[in-house]
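> forwarded from #structure-qc
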């Protein structure tokens, strides 16, 4: 057996299973200990330093830490690590004095950030503290990216989102909002010292070859685009009968949003068995608690259109 190399910080990550499972390697035991002693500001800052958006993640994180939690080996449920992020975020006092400030004297380097979502905002936070001048471009009217456009407000209140986004923008980031970058040549012509492309992958899946798809186009929506239309007020209500195709977290957001927009008979249909659905267990549970049935092992065959109107769908049960 090789001797333990404690000079490598990866060793300490692996010792704490939940911390190692976290993509940001957030020091879970340390911030839980701070919460235990009522030190919510300190717990918040431990999270902020590693994962940037504690209040947001405390509501929407996919929780890879919890399946790794050792508590799950001796009890039915792991420690509610994700919700504890929310606890420290919701109970903190003013933390602005604790936030690090960018240097007054810049280093002379200019960086362009394309996209205003979590990736670009994280880069902005780290580079601002190193003295870089930052220009952030986004086609939306406010920064936040998919956190703003695709996460329903009943899961992520706008106030929480705005607060944590502004912590970063207030570090001196110059924003160019309502600005769609259609050409990298134009950005390169501005002679930046570096360009970070954090535009995400904002394209949902369609079923373009399914019979009836074109005829029923006006009644069929792509999940993430539909959620964005709801957020920006383009869609304020939906029909009483709604079918949601898919078994991921986006599908769970869509079905629960449809319920809030007037959907009375909202159903989710997935190709796979329920045990193989990609949605998080807690997202599925929330949908079921809202009386939304999830019908598994159904493969879509056809959009049924009568007199130019979508009236139903045909499925193959597998």
């Amino acid at each position: 057996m090789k001797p333990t190399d404690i000079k490598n910080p990866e060793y300490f990550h692996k010792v704490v299973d939940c911390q190692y499972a976290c993509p940001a390697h957030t020091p879970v035991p340390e911030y839980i200990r701070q919460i235990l002693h009522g030190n919510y500001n300190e717990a918040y800052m431990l999270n902020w330093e590693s994962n940037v958006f504690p209040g947001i993640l405390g509501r929407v994180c996919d929780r890879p830490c919890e399946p790794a939690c050792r508590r799950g080996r001796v009890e039915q449920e792991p420690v509610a690590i994700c919700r504890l992020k929310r606890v420290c975020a919701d109970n903190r006092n003013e933390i602005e004095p604790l936030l690090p400030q960018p240097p007054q004297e810049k280093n002379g380097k200019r960086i362009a950030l394309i996209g205003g979502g979590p990736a670009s905002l994280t880069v902005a936070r780290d580079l601002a503290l190193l003295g870089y001048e930052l220009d952030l471009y986004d086609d939306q009217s406010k920064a936040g990216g998919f956190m703003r456009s695709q996460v329903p407000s009943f899961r992520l209140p706008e106030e929480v989102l705005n607060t944590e986004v502004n912590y970063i923008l207030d570090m001196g980031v110059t924003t160019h909002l309502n600005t769609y970058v259609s050409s990298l040549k134009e950005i390169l012509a501005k002679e930046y010292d570096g360009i970070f492309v954090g535009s995400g992958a904002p394209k949902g899946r369609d079923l373009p070859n399914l019979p009836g798809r074109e005829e029923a186009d006006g009644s069929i929506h792509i999940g993430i685009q539909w959620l964005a239309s709801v957020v920006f007020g383009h869609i304020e209500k939906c029909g009483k009968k709604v079918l949601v195709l898919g078994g991921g977290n986006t599908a769970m957001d869509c079905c629960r949003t449809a319920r809030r927009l007037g959907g009375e008979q909202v159903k989710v249909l997935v190709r796979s068995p329920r045990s193989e659905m990609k949605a998080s267990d807690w997202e599925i549970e929330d949908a079921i608690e809202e009386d939304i049935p999830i019908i598994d092992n159904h493969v879509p065959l056809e959009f049924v259109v009568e007199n130019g109107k979508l009236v139903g769908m045909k499925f193959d049960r597998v």
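QC bot note: The first strand starts at residue 110 and ends at 114. The chain has three domains: 12-98, 110-197, 217-317.
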